[in-house]
Specification:
Belongs to the aldehyde dehydrogenase family. This is Aldehyde dehydrogenase. Pfam families: Aldedh. The chain contains 16 helices and 21 strands. By secondary structure, it is α/β, with parallel strands linked by helices. It folds into two domains: 273 residues, Aldehyde Dehydrogenase, Chain A, domain 1; 184 residues, 3-Layer(aba) Sandwich (Aldehyde Dehydrogenase, Chain A, domain 2). Helix 15 links the parallel strand 18 and strand 19. Helix 2 crosses helix 7, helix 3 packs across helix 4 and helix 3 runs antiparallel to helix 7.
């Protein structure tokens, strides 16, 4: 049975203003498994107005202790419904359920982390040189926040934004990707059950035009976006016209650097997980593997052997290790990038096309693909593919590795594999990246801030910095002197 999902505005489930729906297509079997309401600019305006009402009349007056209680409850509910939510997400975007299930529990942890912060948003007392003036700073919510998420990990990406926004005291309007909207709407059932007041959380679904209506229209005080650099530029420009601050989490072309003194077994597993987990559809994918020449061939051979054994299949089967491309447009883009890599002269080591097993024929499966002899100037090494495609680049020494690693427009994540702690510290200092891992890859935690530099965006998510992104500081001066400070008084 195909289930229908409607917009969630002001605590009510409602059809879009035009009554239209669009299909949710399972990328594993091409079947329509759900219908989703198609929002309109009118629906966006209603959602923003509902969020504003909720903020002004209710939410801004709710104590941090109460916000924390609701966030704790929401985290517990997500844990309880993790299996159902993970099946829906794997059906929506083709990610292996072993990953979507883990993400649901991880996001529940983020909610509980920020629940603990909700009553601890402290300001500061500022010492002044005027003895009779008391000066202090408080941090306050922006008010109404627009949240736009991508299709690769809808709930995980929402978890990077929503808990912090709510803990800080904001109300939100969420626009998920039209390619994976269902779990975000289903999550609102948990928001209701947790007891959040109507209008605090709102969701409007639809195509990119709905996102444009949200960020370009009036009523938002802050925007948080995860997605492509192209869309990020559009959003930053639209927000700039309204003087609305923006947090942007964009793309990456992350260098995963293996030195010849590394634990090669551990580094190889890290490289494998760094690119083929989530079928490479993650902004932090280690899509450029930089390997010191002395161990280059050994690493490539082992990676090839391991990649060819990755189990592809039904994303909802726990035995599946790698699922599909999330949608047909992305599937076509990945295959086109592989063809471009061949034309550029990179050496195809393994993979290189659509999975050819008969039982995978209906799905958007791409073989785990490895290219060697890649030049860092190739498009294969410069452009984000967002798929299971690894570019292996040899290097000579630390200076060469640093030059290659920093030699793209991106700066989201990087990793260094070495047993030499001095080398590790030198490299972490030189790498232009928002996140650097040493002897690990793709490790995330609610406590640690996350975000990029250069064309990977700006602002931070998670950790204390992620909370402060959703607050604005207010300075207060209290003059408790007994004298009038008259600037026009004549001095004797």
């Amino acid at each position: 049975m195909v289930q229908e999902y409607r917009l969630y505005i002001d605590g009510q489930w409602r059809d879009g203003a035009r009554g239209a729906m669009f299909p949710a297509i399972n990328p594993y079997n091409q079947e329509v498994w759900a219908q989703v309401a198609e929002g309109t600019p009118e629906d966006v305006a209603e959602a923003v107005a509902a969020a504003r009402r909720a903020y002004e009349t209710t939410w801004r007056k709710v104590s941090g202790t109460e916000r924390g209680r609701l966030l704790h409850r929401l985290g517990d509910l997500l844990d309880r419904h993790a299996e159902r939510m993970s099946v829906m997400e794997s059906s929506d975007n083709g990610k292996a359920i072993r990953e979507t299930r883990a993400q649901m529990h991880y996001v529940a942890r983020i909610f509980r982390f920020y629940a603990g912060y909700a009553d601890k948003i402290w300001g500061a007392v500022i010492p002044l040189d005027q003895r009779d003036v008391f000066d202090y700073v408080v941090r306050e919510p922006y008010g109404v926040v627009g949240i736009i998420t991508a299709w690769n990990s809808p709930i995980a990406l929402l978890g990077n934004k929503l808990p912090a926004a709510l803990a800080a005291g904001n109300c939100v309007v969420i626009k998920p990707s039209e390619h994976a909207s269902v779990t975000t709407l289903a999550f609102c059932e948990l928001v209701e059950e947790a007891g959040f007041p109507p209008g605090v959380v709102n969701v409007v679904t639809g195509d990119a035009g709905i996102g444009r209506s949200l960020v370009s229209g009036p009523g938002l005080d802050k925007i948080s976006f995860t997605g492509s650099g192209r869309a990020g530029r559009e959003i930053a420009a639209a927000a700039g016209r309204n003087l609305v601050p923006v947090t942007l989490e964009l793309g990456g072309k992350s260098p995963n650097i293996i030195f010849d003194d590394a634990d090669l077994e551990k580094a190889t597993v890290g490289a494998l997980a760094g690119i083929f987990a989530a079928a490479g559809q993650t902004c932090i994918a280690g899509s450029r593997l930089l390997v010191q020449r002395a161990v280059h061939d050994r690493v490539v051979d082992e990676l090839s052997r391991r990649a060819e054994r990755i189990v592809m299949g039904n994303p909802c089967d726990p035995a599946t290790e790698m699922g599909t491309a999330a949608n047909e447009p992305q599937f076509r883009r990945i295959l086109a990038s592989i063809d471009e890599g061949r034309r550029e002269g990179a050496r195809l080591v393994t993979g290189g096309g659509k999975a050819d097993r008969q039982d995978l024929a209906r799905g958007f499966f791409v073989q785990p693909t490895i290219f060697a002899d890649v030049d860092n100037a190739m498009r294969l090494a410069q452009e984000e593919i967002f798929g299971p495609v690894l570019a292996v680049i040899p290097f000579d020494d630390e200076a060469h590795a640093t030059e290659l690693a920093n030699g793209t427009a991106f700066g989201l994540a990087a990793a260094v594999w070495t047993r030499d702690i001095s080398r590790a510290m030198r490299m972490t200092r030189e790498l232009r990246s928002g996140v650097v891992w040493v002897n690990t890859y793709r490790m995330v935690t609610p406590q640690a801030p996350f975000g990029g530099v250069k064309e990977s965006g700006y602002g931070r998510e998670r950790g204390e910095q992620g909370l402060l992104e959703f607050t604005v500081s207010k300075n207060v001066m209290v003059d408790f002197s007994t004298e009038a400070r008259d600037p026009f008084a004549v001095k004797a």
